[in-house]
Specification:
The structure holds two protein chains of two kinds. By secondary structure, chain A is an alpha+beta fold. Chain A has three domains: about 80 residues, no CATH class; about 110 residues, Butyryl-CoA Dehydrogenase, subunit A, domain 2 (Beta Barrel), CATH 2.40.110.10; about 150 residues, Up-down Bundle (Butyryl-CoA Dehydrogenase, subunit A, domain 3). Chain A has twelve helices and ten strands. Chain A has a four-stranded mixed β-sheet. In chain A, strands 2-3-7-6 form a four-stranded antiparallel β-sheet, with no helix packed on it. In chain A, a hairpin with an 8-residue loop joins strand 6 and strand 7. In chain A, helix 8 packs antiparallel against helix 9. In chain B, the strands form three sheets. Chain B has a four-stranded mixed β-sheet. By secondary structure, chain B is of the alpha+beta class. Chain B starts with 6 loop residues before the first helix and ends in a 5-residue tail after the last helix. The longest helix of chain B is centred in the middle third of the chain and has 36 residues. In chain B, helix 7 runs antiparallel to helix 10, helix 9 runs antiparallel to helix 10 and helix 9 runs antiparallel to helix 11. The model of chain B has no long low-confidence stretch (mean pLDDT about 95). The chains are: A alpha+beta, B alpha+beta. At the A-B interface, helix 8, helix 9, helix 10 and helix 12 of A face helix 7, helix 8, helix 9 and helix 11 of B.
Chain lengths: ~400, ~375
């Protein structure tokens, strides 16, 4: 047993760190620290910076731009990005549609979509959830009826993040009516967002953002070549996505950065005679979160070491569901501590807080992020659904 | 970075796991407990034969040259078995002080006796008012031309009732909470002037309150340099924290397994109760707490060798805090999920709960460790 990394691994970490330091615009970094919304251009430009370096899609197959990194290198890359803090690459492109097309798509689809997804030439959004199909995803009702060379899609998608920016949507729709096994008959379609019949309606969220949407699909014509996999294979693909490794979802680096931020702000904010940081009881609350975070980091390293030993596998380690559950709990705990640091300063509401940096204050985004980051335990498989999954592995029910 | 065991470590783990599985069932444990000392001397001899008693000592001195990982493997197995013998007291605590502070001749004399099972030890340190403050020592040692004389009282000395020898901490200079001025003395358990009141602890192990009334100690039985014992005490307590973290991990793992089995087999309303989602999620929450604890038990053992006392202390404080909160959670949840079964002395679940609760109170409970971390400014 040895916690030390090799010289090569540490050199890689340093290379990532110095690249990010050199390439990440200071304005973007400051927005990330303060939890402000990035513009579309900022997200696109950062992903292109990484893509130019060859680092935008490290998990993909090497022939489509993947790096072939070891588990430790992936860990350091995620950790450094999160700690910088730098924007993460667009997950819909990098973690979702890319791996799906690489695994299930045909050659033409790979050539057409993968390079553009890596470079964020196409911004992808995810058309899974519906008003009646959240955790019970297989209850979805959107349908795609075959008509000549096209599927004609009708339905409504919900909680579609960044649909307002998206060029393409990957979408689950029924190609056969629901039977007793409702997981059957669902297909995976790629839809050009410029196709007539698509309406995007923003949903205002409690963090002040408008980045999730309802997407209405009315008689949307989707060429048959935009079906991924076989008709009816959609559920398998969805399961493939939800079972994809969750080590990145632990967000250990983000929580580390948040803890540093808490300590830094608490050293400035006054409470009584001195800085809040001199209040031992406050420090104990921070320490309690740090302990859980350290344990999570060790759990993450154990998962990585296990992967290193047995090589990459499509079967996720059951411990990786734990990473997502605990990771999001810790992330949310940091937002609570920040709320405590800001005290009454967190109350001021600025409608322009998302964009306007000229009159900004660090406290502007504390409460909105506390509200908004509740989403972390909901999306990507709610923590309760993940607990069902783990329960099945240990109890068999 | 790897979490792999060496070939020797794997063999040690296999042999101690197997030994515990075969010799420390719940029924066997109940019989071991009925032995006159509250633990079984034949078991102790077998530990010696398995090579467990000499693990942390140098090979040149009669030990096996093992380190914190080996100790972790043994303690984790002991946690599963809820063992009763004075391993923590003899090998980890007092043996650790001998290793860290003892002279070469003291080690050469005593290590072989420990390793072959002839000598048990206890560390008499805690006093009624000292709680978890390691420097809070009021027991006094006075020097005259013939040697030292000890006066004072020690409480909850783990396995102090049956120990052949005691390592006693006493103040030789300074005032009550000074780190400087503490000295360690090797004293026979039945030396003149020692009154031991032994008792069972809540978890069925043994401890003693010990009065020292004019106990004479010769200069050659001082362990280390007089007045200079604190660093060794702090270090050995960090080692003991790592050891009990591993023991708690073994106990939590077993208790979680018991609970999962119970949920699968116990039927109510015509179905196994494990089919109820509200109970499933609680079992998963226990598993999460267990995995977090496993991570920190490993971190604790990996950090023991760190020579920077500050860095080491932070890691071990964090580990003990996590083990404490996970232990409490898992113990309480297991008891709840077992219904009435969790409350009976005839079932092992409650005994794990008790041992875990006692471990939380050893060497600084969760509240103490969080305070220790808070004072240090956190983990980083």
């Amino acid at each position: 047993m040895d916690l030390r990394f090799t010289a090569e691994e540490l050199a890689f970490r340093d290379e990532v760190r110095s690249f990010i330091q050199g390439a990440l615009p200071e304005a973007v970094r400051k927005k990330m620290i303060e939890g402000r919304q990035l513009t579309k251009d900022e997200v696109v430009s950062w992903q292109r910076t990484l893509n130019a370096k060859g680092w935008a899609v490290p998990h993909w197959p090497v022939e489509w731009g993947g790096t072939g990194w070891s588990a430790v290198q992936h860990y350091f890359f995620d950790d450094e990005l999160q700690q910088a803090p730098a924007p993460l690459c667009l997950p819909f492109n990098v973690n979702m549609i890319g791996p799906v097309i690489a695994a299930f798509g045909n050659e033409a689809q790979k050539k057409r979509f993968l390079p553009r997804a890596a470079n964020l030439d196409d911004w992808w959004c995810q058309g899974f959830s519906e008003p009646g199909a959240g955790s019970d995803l297989a209850a979805l009702k959107s349908n795609a009826r075959l008509s000549g060379e096209h599927y004609v899609v009708n339905g409504q998608k919900m909680w579609t993040s960044f649909a307002q920016f998206a060029d393409w949507m990957f979408c689950l729709a029924r190609t056969e009516p629901a039977t007793a096994r409702k997981q059957q008959g669902i297909s995976f379609l790629l839809i050009d967002m410029k196709t007539p019949g698509i309406t995007v309606r923003p949903i205002a969220t409690i963090d002040g953002g408008q980045d999730v949407n309802e997407v209405f699909l009315e008689e949307v014509m989707v060429p048959i070549e935009n079906l991924v996999g076989r008709p009816g294979e959609g559920w398998n693909i969805a399961k493939f996505l939800l079972g994809k490794e969750r080590t990145g979802l632990a967000r250990v680096g983000t929580s580390k950065e948040r803890i540093r931020r808490i300590k830094q702000l608490a050293s400035i904010e006054q409470s009584g005679a001195g800085p809040l940081w001199e209040d031992l009881r406050f420090r104990e609350r921070v320490a309690a979160v740090e302990v859980e975070l350290k344990a999570l980091e060790m759990t993450l390293l154990r998962v990585i070491a296990a992967e290193k030993r047995r090589g990459p596998s499509d079967k996720p380690d059951p411990a990786s569901s734990i990473l997502k559950i605990k990771g999001t709990e810790i992330l949310q705990a940091t937002t609570e501590l920040l709320l405590e640091v800001a005290g009454p300063q967190a109350m001021r509401y600025r409608s322009e807080a998302l964009e306007d940096m000229a009159h900004s204050d660090w406290a502007d985004r504390i409460a909105p992020n506390y509200f908004g980051w509740r989403k972390f335990s909901i999306f990507g498989g709610s923590n309760e659904i993940l607990k069902n999954v783990i329960a099945k592995t240990i109890l068999g029910f | 970075m790897d979490f792999d065991l060496t070939e020797e470590q794997r063999m040690l783990k296999d042999s101690v796991d197997r030994w515990i599985a075969e010799n420390y069932s719940f029924e066997q444990r109940s019989r071991h407990m009925k032995c006159p000392d509250g633990w079984n001397r034949e078991v102790w001899e077998q530990y010696a034969e398995l090579g467990l008693l000499g693990i942390p000592f140098d090979e040149g001195e009669g030990g096996l040259g093992g380190g914190p990982i080996e100790t972790m493997l043994v303690m984790e197995a002991f946690g599963r078995g809820l063992t009763l013998e004075p391993y923590l007291a003899t090998v980890v605590l007092a043996g650790g002080l001998l290793r860290l502070a003892g002279s070469a001749s003291q080690r050469r004399t005593l290590v072989p006796q420990i390793a072959d099972g002839r000598l048990t030890l206890a560390f008499a340190h805690t006093e009624r008012h000292s709680r978890f403050e390691l420097a809070d020592v009021s027991t006094i040692a006075r020097l005259d031309e013939k040697g030292w004389t000890l006066e004072g009282e020690k409480t909850v000395v783990l396995h102090g009732d049956s120990a052949d020898k005691l390592v006693v901490s006493a103040r030789t200079s300074g005032s009550r909470c000074d780190a400087d001025g503490i000295t360690l003395f090797l004293v026979a358990g039945d030396a003149k002037g020692i009154a031991r009141r032994g008792y069972a602890t809540q978890d069925g192990l043994r401890a003693a309150d010990i009065e020292l009334d004019g106990v004479r100690v010769s200069p050659e039985d001082v362990l280390g340099k007089p007045g200079n014992a604190y660093p060794a005490i702090a270090r050995v307590v960090d080692e003991a924290i790592a050891a009990v973290c591993a023991e708690a991990l073994g106990a939590m793992t077993a208790l979680h397994e018991l609970t999962v089995e119970y949920l699968k087999n116990r039927r109510q309303f015509g179905v196994p109760i494990g089919s109820f989602q509200v109970l499933q999620h609680r079992a998963v929450d226990m598993l999460i707490a267990l995995e977090q604890a496993r991570s920190m038990a490993i971190l604790a053992s990996m950090s023991v060798a760190e020579n920077d006392a500050e860095v080491r202390g932070r890691c071990l404080a964090a580990a003990k805090a996590q083990i404490g909160s996970s232990s409490r959670f898992i113990g309480q949840e297991a008891t709840q999920l077992h219904g009435g079964m969790g409350l009976t002395m005839e079932y092992s679940g409650g005994h794990y709960f008790k041992r875990l609760t006692m471990i939380e109170s050893l060497f600084g409970n969760t509240a103490h460790q969080l305070q220790r971390l808070a004072r240090a400014g956190g983990l980083e």
